[in-house]
Amino acid sequence: MAMDLSGYLTRIGFDRPLHPDLDTLRAIVAAHNRSIPFENLDPLLGIPVADLSAEALAAKLVDRRRGGYCYEHNGLLGYVLEGLGFTVDRLSGRVVWMQEADAPLPAQTHNVLSVAVPGVDGRYLVDVGFGGQTLTSPIRLQAGPVQQTRHEPYRLTRTGDDDHVLAAQIRGDWQPLYMFTTEPRPRIDLEVGSWYVSTYPASHFVTGLNVAVVADDARYNLRGRNLAIHRPGGTERIRFDTAAQVLGALHDIFGINLADLADHDVEARVAEVLDT
């Protein structure tokens, strides 16, 4: 299916001329960051996320004004970029953020994009689906140099012939986020990964509420009842007393269309995971 580009561009508030160039890629990533939240309400409510077709992703994230997680965000953006004339490979990664160095090897449950820009040598790592610490600009898929985004600096390192680790500089410290290879993955592999993380009983997408959105000057991260607003000058923390207040934040701060979930008791489920 050809993506409904006009619907997507309206969703992200993008009204500048379109060209398959680096400036357009950067601008689309920034607009996507601002407009479509990271959220896991479907898995939290027992709704599997297995269909990663262009139709399904556009219906949810564009038409119904919901958010999603990595497979949905980067899946949708991948279709958009292909429709604009970029070359896109879909990659899988293993999340290592906030894990001990000797922790067991995590599963490949993260999805990122490798994007080729016409007329530009090399490829770019694009990831609009890593939640609270997602990339806010494309960076060169090149190990070694520190690369500045619209927010923090990032860098890639190599750990093997085809293994990369992405790290972000957070409060002065380099923190690894995920490892990945540059081997393209077919959609069926990504759908299996998405089904797993949206249904596995111990998955943190099933057991807790995780929501994020990135403004130009701040990152808004919600875990259960706890909202953190990270700005260059420091972090503001807000603790909501009730699930009703959390639902208010989901609508007012993150722009999530909760009417899409009218058949589910969202408030009762959120009340169960306020402190997870």
Automatic annotation (TrEMBL):
<dbReference type="InterPro" id="IPR001447">
    <property type="entry name" value="Arylamine_N-AcTrfase"/>
</dbReference>
<dbReference type="Pfam" id="PF00797">
    <property type="entry name" value="Acetyltransf_2"/>
</dbReference>
<keyword id="KW-0808">Transferase</keyword>
<comment type="similarity">
    <text>Belongs to the arylamine N-acetyltransferase family.</text>
</comment>
<dbReference type="GO" id="GO:0016407">
    <property type="term" value="F:acetyltransferase activity"/>
</dbReference>
<protein>
    <submittedName>
        <fullName>Arylamine N-acetyltransferase</fullName>
    </submittedName>
</protein>
<dbReference type="InterPro" id="IPR038765">
    <property type="entry name" value="Papain-like_cys_pep_sf"/>
</dbReference>
